[in-house]
Amino acid sequence: MGVRIGKILVDRGFITEAQLQEALRRQKESGGRVGEILIEMGALTQDQLNWALGEQLGLPYAELSQEMVDLEAARALPEELLRRYQALPILKVGNELTVTLADPTNRQAVADIEALTGARVTVAIASAAVITHLLDLAFPPAMVREGVRYCEICPPGYQQPEALTRDTSGVAAVYALLLAAVREHATEIHIEPREAEIRVRYRVPGGLREPARFPAHLGGAIATRLRILAGVRPEHGWQRSRMRTRLDEQELELELLFLPTRRGEAITIWLRRRDLGPPDLEQLGLPARAGKTLTRFLRDGRGLFLVSSPDPGGLAAGLYALARTAAREGKRVVTVERVAAFEVADFVQVEIEDGIERATIEALARPPEVALVEDVSAGAVCLAAARAAERGSLVIGGLPFATPSTAWQHLLSLDLPRPLLAASLRALLTVQREEERWASALFPVSDRTRRRLIQGPVPWTLPTS
Hints:
Blueprint: H1 2-11, H2 17-30, H3 34-41, H4 46-57, H5 71-75, H6 79-85, E1 87-93, E2 96-101, H7 107-117, E3 120-125, H8 128-138, E4 148-150, H9 163-166, H10 171-183, E5 188-193, E6 197-204, E7 207-215, H11 219-230, E8 239-247, E9 250-261, E10 264-273, H12 288-300, E11 303-308, H13 312-327, E12 333-337, E13 348-351, H14 356-365, E14 370-373, H15 379-390, E15 394-399, H16 404-412, H17 418-424, E16 425-434, E17 437-444, H18 447-455
Parallel strand pairs: 2-3, 4-8, 11-15, 11-16, 12-13, 12-14, 14-15
Antiparallel strand pairs: 1-2, 5-6, 5-10, 6-7, 8-9, 9-10, 16-17
Helix pairs in contact: 1-4, 2-3, 14-15, 15-17, 17-18
């Protein structure tokens, strides 16, 4: 191949015969591609090499500009995938997608893009630098929502039941799993490798249910498909990612956790439905007396309120129900989350994927009237929340714990100044899922509990309203 590409370059006058022979000599000594060696020698430019590769392979060489490219076609695919393969979709007509590649011989790139889109890919060649520049335009920092991308779960052609039996790419299997989970109102999907099969379990109202098992050889394809959707590269150790999609006429947010095990990769997926608005306090299943007490506390407009739940959906429901109640008094609400659990037009919703602890502390240094903080389990964040509440703000913070006792003991283990905690903390609300409804309990902080916080010993329980 090196000789053939070299002959094209010589025939077109891009290099001399002597330069080609020198490149072939270096290739024999140290390996590598002739075209890359010629570029290192300074005898050839990348554009000239791409043009010659196009002639050799019978592919067009595209001199791209922003005006020529439909950037929306690029945004329909995961950014990580496009950057990994130095690929840029530029045109789709019917079921044919034209993709420019910096390396047109990369068959894996073509296979992955075809599996992801369901389209037949036609390859063109373009400069790697130009592709990178256009990808930067397609995915500017303002559009990248801190690692959360919008993805199409299933391309056309994979939505028929028979596709599952003939698909080896994992596309149809992942589509079937997610679609069934949405229709069964599942909140979690657990994909667990076994010796000879892949076990799938859903967490649905009432507990775990096992809807399917797959042959073990499909495990790698399913994991690869989910990684492509989530934009996560295969790496050692656990990895977490978020994405948004639309499935069965519902807007969904998926959080994926990849865990290496002895038998393969285990994957957990948490599902949140974004087409439902945040609940009111009345929808949390609080006893009437507790609901009135909590409403009165929130109308005071100050203090630290904690919400505890083992379920991300329950935690979000509790936080937003409290914030909405506080907002009825005409107060400004600012939320600080990795990904906003709900969309509320009147709230200022801040999304921060990386460095959320530091960003939360900075936000609470000059707190708004009402602050909703996704997670205050870190000591420094909880300290900042307590200080903001002491200064007169109403702070609503999340603690991802299953029971009120574990949430309370974690709070006391943070080594916070006890007088500050006693002065700022107003109540702990726990939210649990029961079938298709929420069940909540309120633990208001009494004067007796505050005295015990300051004087000791540690109060092991909170009084229930």
